[in-house]
Write a structure and sequence with these properties.
Elements (H helix, E strand, L loop, with lengths): L1 E6 L2 E8 L8 E6 L2 E6 L2 H13 L5 E7 L8 E6 L20 E6 L3 E4 L14 E7 L8 E6 L4 E4 L8 E8 L11 E6 L2 E6 L4 E2 L2 E2 L4 E6 L3 E7 L5 E8 L2 E6 L2
Parallel strand pairs: 12-20
Antiparallel strand pairs: 1-2, 2-3, 3-4, 5-6, 6-7, 7-8, 9-10, 10-11, 12-17, 13-14, 13-18, 15-16, 18-19
Length: 250
């Protein structure tokens, strides 16, 4: 099945085809300027396409996922800024400095861009480049750090009012991988399972903190399972939420 969309004079095609890559159920997003992007599920592809359309007039650099309201669904932050400081002379719809985009994950069903409703800091245009996520004030919700080309770094403190709980997981690995890069962390709470990996890099010229912050909704306890880079595994059951736990590789 194929659907065609047109925006700003460009044609976009979203196709789901069970024959693509043999038995896999994949979706393909194509435009005249981009190579195909493959997804394992058409719903994910549809959400990505929504983000892509909203960002057609933006030059994207930093992208980060974070659960801003701790509801268990990761939201998306996009740092934008054009590479040409004279772009407005040639395209009246595109600017050099651009506001960041913030997409709220509506329970895995769609992404809703709410940057202008998220506060004046996200309404300000900037020539953004890198971005990273860290709970710098240790209040349980992830904050954002954004760098600007020929400008200052910006700290976007997240003070979203929410009763939702969280769990922060910090891993200590064995030498030489003391930071446990590549570890797989699974947190189960309230019947919902979330999986994250400890990774280096991941953003444009930026590194988020290595501690993983999970939004858990109203859950009071959580079970944590870790698959360590060397292949060993460890489990911690009934961990109280609203805390930070440090786990050491066995």
């Amino acid at each position: 099945m194929q659907k065609l969309y047109t925006k700003n004079g460009r044609k976009y095609e979203v196709a789901t085809d069970g024959q693509i890559l043999t038995m896999a159920r994949l979706a393909v997003i194509r435009s005249a300027r981009e190579a195909p992007v493959y997804f394992n599920d058409p719903l994910i592809a549809a959400n990505f396409f929504t983000i892509q359309l909203a960002g057609l007039q933006h030059e994207v650099f930093g992208v980060a996922f974070l659960d801003a309201d701790r509801d268990g669904w990761q939201d998306a932050f996009v740092a934008n800024g054009h590479i040409d400081d004279y772009i407005e002379q040639f395209d009246s719809q595109v600017t050099y400095a651009q506001r960041p985009l913030f997409y709220r994950n509506v329970r895995g069903e769609r992404f809703q861009e709410i940057g202008l409703q998220a506060g004046p800091a996200l309404a300000r245009r900037m020539v953004a480049r890198g971005c990273a996520v860290a709970d710098y004030d240790r209040d349980g919700d992830p904050d954002l750090i954004v760098t600007e080309n020929n400008g200052p770094a910006h700290l976007f403190r997240n003070d979203t009012p929410t009763p939702n709980r969280h769990l922060r997981v910090l891993l200590r690995g064995k030498a030489p991988n003391r930071e446990a890069i590549g570890a797989r962390v699974t947190v189960t709470a309230g019947g919902v399972q979330q999986v994250r990996w400890v990774r280096a890099g991941g953003h444009y010229y930026s590194q988020s903190e290595l501690a993983l912050t999970f939004g858990l909704g109203p859950a009071a306890t959580a079970d944590v399972a870790v698959t360590w880079p060397r292949g060993s595994a460890s489990e911690s059951a009934g961990v109280a939420t609203g805390t930070t736990i440090t786990l050491t590789e066995p």
